[in-house]
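Appendix B, example 12.
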Amino acid sequence: MLLIPVTAVLVRSQMPRIGYTQCHVLQGQPTLWFTDWIRDPALCVKGKSLDWVNEQAKQPRRPALPPGALPPAEE
């Protein structure tokens, strides 16, 4: 029983160190204290499921455009 709080403390301290962010707003979380860990904070969208996040993460990412720039025309 002692391992549960110890594990929780280790997870909360080590996951950000390896590039993960807590996401509390995804659909289908079993309890108020449950959280998902995701790599891209932009994918933490309220009401979306973890499956949706995984699908988005698998898609190739376009480079970010500077503010006011138009995206290149699709051919």
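The chain has two helices and two strands. The chain has a mean pLDDT of 79.
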